[in-house]
């Protein structure tokens, strides 16, 4: 009898331990699956924000954030994908919700300012940037600060912010181009030309800077193309821009010559240059 009782107790204990082990095992599996799902969700979000089609990314984050409204990261993803899809107007209210959250970051506030700038709300963008501590120093923040200062015609502040932004990135071509365009609008053509040249040295594929440097030279009545890398089609387009600059300066014969050269240089039919030349000759 005593032996039977011990066997029963042993079996009961073994079954109890087995049940505990099963519960522990189930919990471990649940935690592991949760971790895997979290990793998969983060990876999918990263993919959607980088390589996925912008419209598909918007659809994904709209659905995901609706299903998980407590997850701020999904709202961020939605706002970023809306901006990427060229729908900044829709992104602004989403960013406003994000920056109101207790766990919002200064990066979120910078992104709100960017969305506001894209929608032409410069004063609100200025306010959004002013809400960020001056100790938060990033390339994007200072690039936006420079653009806002430009819009307010605060030239000294703009130059200071552009200079800081250039020093905070290893790829300054776009901000150098913006800085150069700022100088161009102020009538400082020589300085604008220098900044556009710096932008091209940093990114030889940046056609906007190539076109802008030609505008700066044309404004100084310098109608020769700069010595910069350019393909044949680009050369034709730059000659066309230079021709239009000559028209603006009243140098009509020079403009006609440049437009003729643009038409001859282009590997295909250059309709825009043809129309410009016909307008001058008529």
UniProtKB/TrEMBL annotation:
Keywords: TPR repeat
Protein's UniProt name: Tetratricopeptide repeat protein
Molecular function as annotated in GO: identical protein binding
Keyword Thylakoid: no
TPR repeats: 236-269
InterPro entries referenced in this protein's UniProt entry, alphabetically: TPR-4, TPR-like_helical_dom_sf, TPR_rpt
Pfam families the UniProt entry points to: TPR_16 (PF13432), TPR_4 (PF07721)
SMART domains to which the protein is assigned, alphabetical: TPR
Superkingdom field: Bacteria
